[in-house]
Amino acid sequence: MQTSFNIHHLYFLLNGMAWTLALSLIAFIGGGIAGFAVALCRVSPVAAVRWSATAYVQLVQGIPLLILMFMTYFGLSIAGWTLSALVAAGIAMTIYVSAYLGEIWRGCIEAVARTQWEAAECLALSRTQRMRLVILPQALRIATPPTVGFMVQIVKNTSLASIVGFVELARAGQVVNNSIFQPFLVYIIVATFYFALCYPLSAWSTRLERRLQVGQPAPLFA
């Protein structure tokens, strides 16, 4: 018998929203750690390291996230590694996020004025010291707004995890709609929940861009 939308359906959607947030955090933290390594490799003075990182980025960016989900969930199970939907989706999104954040941060590192690199060299700092004390602090200032903005894409891309059976917000909406057959109401609520997750991040990104005045760099060396 068809039923009307009730508090139990709302609770189910809120639970899906919580899992969407959890998967987003897993993807951002894991992808951020790996992406930082990718960014450093992309600006490495060692050609083989740069080429390897470039190949990794191009490979991942050339494969749709949906296919990465399939490969981690079904491909690894064929190889004998049975993963839960959350773990498989987390691995796929971590790989995906690492490639894009790596490129974002690589661009921010290279956006630091060349004079800053040269000034650091004049102080006889090692490359590690130059990166840690001079370049990365300035790159962080440039990278903060686009990184926060990319988090919005991470949240929305979690909806693809439903393809491997992970019940996040979009999948929860499908389940509720299949039980009550009220798609307009259900998906308006789902869209509202996504907006509640994404809008603060978008507003924060805009505010950070104004506050940090990314277009007007503040060098450590004049």
Topology, element by element:
Blueprint: H1 7-42, H2 47-61, H3 65-78, H4 85-111, H5 114-122, H6 127-157, H7 169-180, H8 183-212
Helix pairs in contact: 1-2, 1-4, 1-7, 1-8, 2-4, 3-4, 4-6, 5-6, 6-8, 7-8
Give the count of structural domains: 1
The CATH superfamily title: MetI-like
The number of helical runs is: 8
Q: Count every beta strand, where a strand is a DSSP E run of 2 or more residues.
A: 0
CATH architecture: Orthogonal Bundle
Share in helix? over 70%
> In terms of per-residue confidence, which ranges show pLDDT below 50 for 5 or more consecutive residues?
215-222
Indicate the CATH class. Mainly Alpha
Based on secondary structure, the structural category is mainly alpha
| Mean pLDDT metric | 88
N-to-C series of helices and strands:
HHHHHHHH
Share in β-strands? under 5%
Radius of gyration from the CA trace? 21 Å
Do you know the CATH topology?
A: MetI-like fold
- First-to-last CA distance: 74 Å
* Global morphology: flat
Summarize this entry quickly:
This protein is an all-alpha fold.
Descriptive report:
The protein has helices at residues 7-42, 47-61, 65-78, 85-111, 114-122, 127-157, 169-180, 183-212. It is mainly α and 222 residues long. It has one domain (7-212): MetI-like fold, CATH 1.10.3720.10. The longest helix is centred in the first third of the chain and has 36 residues, at 7-42. The protein is flat, with a radius of gyration of 21 Å. The model is unreliable at 215-222 (pLDDT under 50).
